[in-house]
């Protein structure tokens, strides 16, 4: 992992000065609320800042953090031992980051939106969103992910002037100023020269130039959330008496000549029914059912024929074979997704899915219509299925049957999908396109890692193409700058853009 510079200059004295000549150091106080930080020149442990101070620690947050799982929290050993929950941090200005420093920074005020103790972050705050992921992963027992997101919060804070000043005040309560170097691997400041110990004398490093912005790499259709369960647009009628298939119906008329030919051909279609299902979609499919004395239902689907302008019978099989050749029996035919998807459900959970016009989309186990639409099209997910070779992967399609993305874990955003598998991740748009990068002489959409972040200027993605090579992608799929040596450099570039 890369080293991160925390801008700090160590207070030093001329080597010729004897011990007896060193003037007494005045007790240090917090620059923001005035609370005493040292006594007899030593740091006072667990200083309680005033509630108006940016370093104020809420007791409720402190208590909840102390009771967190030891797998994701080092607060039980919040002393000067080096932080070891991950190897993300090496030496900072020649010193390892300690548990106390780590947690003081984690729980300090947010330099992005001003929230205290990670309470009430603004909705577009990058740090707030990362902290929320950390808490969620902790509650789910995902230790590795929780530590990774918690480290991200600390890194982002350390990359701000406030975070650097906080670490400086922890390490040097007298108020030694941060160094101006931005070299992430810089050495500790030479202590042989006297320097100011006041933060007001700190001069920030020159601003880096804004990174260049490339053209959009791919299209950006937007996914919208819709109701997960809704009968809008659907009509489901059960009659007490059998109804004739002949004549005019709210959905149209049946081509009776074709229907009679189907009957003579042995299709087994029936001329009357007592279950009727249709939608408000013009020329959409019609589902008819006929209850039998033994309790089961015969099902028939009618599809619109554009040549005749009428409906023709399409028999729904009473049984079928799954992808492994096992016999499954038809239980139900219904509309889902507000009448835009037809689902044929068989025994053992096997399904066949098509759109409202009868176009086949997919078949198998664990298929679900998601509460999502893209450019007016419904989204269908086919998750872990023992009848497929890639049974651990999730596949998503639109209602035209086009595959959009696949992976062992899918993370959905309004503009993109992050598909994660055991050894790689891929960034897709909602058209099924993905981003490719040079992996060393060959282009690939298999990335080492992809992380999504939210800021006041929208979402952005930090992509680890390979070790030491990170790309920054805005939510409109434009690349910001070239490549960066760490995620922190990428975050820094985003803040400058």
Pick out its properties.
single chain; alpha+beta; five-stranded antiparallel β-sheet; 497 residues
Describe this structure in words.
- 15% of the residues lie in helices and 31% in strands.
- With 497 residues, it is α+β, with helices and mostly antiparallel strands.
- A five-stranded antiparallel β-sheet has the order 5-29-28-27-26. A five-stranded antiparallel β-sheet has the order 6-17-18-19-20, with no helix packed on it.
- β8 (272-279) and β9 (286-291) form a beta hairpin.
- α2 crosses α4 (143-158) and α3 runs antiparallel to α4 (143-158).
- The chain is elongated and about 100 Å long.
Helix content: 10-25%
For the largest beta-sheet, the strand count, sense and barrel status come to:
5 strands, antiparallel
- The whole-angstrom Rg is 32 Å
Straight-line distance between termini:
25 Å
Please tell me the overall pLDDT.
80
Strand order of the largest sheet: 5-29-28-27-26
So what's the overall shape? elongated
**Strand percentage:** 25-35%
- Give the number of DSSP strands: 29
The unreliable regions are 1-27, 59-77, 175-203
Number of helical runs? 7
Structural class by helix and strand composition: alpha+beta
């Amino acid at each position: 992992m890369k080293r991160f510079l925390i801008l700090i200059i160590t207070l030093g004295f001329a080597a010729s000065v004897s011990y007896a000549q060193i003037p007494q150091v005045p007790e240090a106080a917090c620059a923001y609320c005035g609370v005493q930080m040292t006594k007899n020149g030593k740091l006072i442990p667990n200083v309680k800042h005033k509630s108006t101070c940016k370093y104020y620690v809420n007791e409720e947050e402190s208590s909840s953090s102390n009771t967190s799982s030891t797998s994701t929290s080092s607060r039980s050993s919040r002393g000067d031992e080096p932080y070891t929950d991950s190897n993300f941090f090496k030496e900072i200005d020649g010193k390892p980051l300690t548990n106390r420093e780590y947690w003081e920074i984690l729980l300090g005020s947010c330099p992005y939106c001003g929230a205290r103790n990670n309470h009430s972050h603004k909705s577009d705050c990058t740090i707030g969103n990362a902290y929320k992921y950390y808490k969620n992963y902790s509650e789910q027992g995902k230790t590795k992910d929780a530590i990774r997101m918690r480290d991200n919060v600390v890194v982002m804070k350390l990359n701000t002037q406030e975070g650097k000043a906080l670490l400086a005040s922890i390490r040097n309560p007298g108020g030694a100023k941060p160094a101006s170097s931005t070299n992430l691997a810089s050495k500790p400041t030479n202590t042989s020269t006297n320097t100011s110990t006041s933060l007001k004398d700190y001069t920030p490093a020159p601003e880096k130039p804004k990174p260049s912005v490339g053209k959009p790499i791919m299209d950006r259709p937007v996914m919208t959330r819709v109701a997960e369960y809704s009968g809008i647009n659907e009509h489901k009628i059960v009659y007490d008496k059998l109804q004739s298939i002949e004549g005019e119906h709210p959905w149209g008329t049946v081509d009776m000549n074709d229907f009679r030919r189907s009957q003579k051909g042995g299709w087994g279609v029936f001329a009357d029914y007592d279950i009727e299902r249709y939608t408000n979609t013009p020329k959409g499919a019609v589902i008819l059912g006929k209850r039998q004395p033994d309790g089961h239902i015969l099902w028939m689907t009618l599809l619109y024929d554009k040549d005749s302008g009428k409906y023709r019978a399409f028999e729904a099989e009473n049984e079928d074979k799954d992808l492994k050749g096992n016999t499954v029996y038809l239980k139900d035919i219904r509309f889902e997704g507000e009448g835009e998807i037809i689902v044929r459900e068989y025994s053992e959970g096997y399904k066949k899915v098509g759109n409202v016009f009868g176009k086949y989309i997919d078949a198998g186990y664990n298929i679900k219509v998601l509460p999502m639409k893209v450019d007016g099209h419904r989204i269908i997910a086919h998750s872990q299925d023992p009848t497929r070779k890639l049974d651990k992967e999730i596949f998503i399609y639109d209602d035209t049957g086009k595959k959009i993305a696949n992976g062992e874990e899918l993370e959905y955003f309004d503009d993109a999908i992050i598909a994660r598998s055991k050894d790689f991740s891929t960034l897709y748009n909602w058209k099924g396109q993905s981003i490719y990068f040079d992996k060393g002489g060959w282009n690939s959409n298999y990335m080492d890692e992809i992380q999504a972040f939210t800021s006041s200027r929208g979402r952005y993605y930090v992509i680890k193409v390979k070790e030491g090579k990170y790309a920054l992608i805005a939510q409109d799929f434009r690349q910001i700058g070239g490549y960066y040596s760490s995620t922190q450099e990428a975050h820094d570039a985003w803040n400058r853009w």
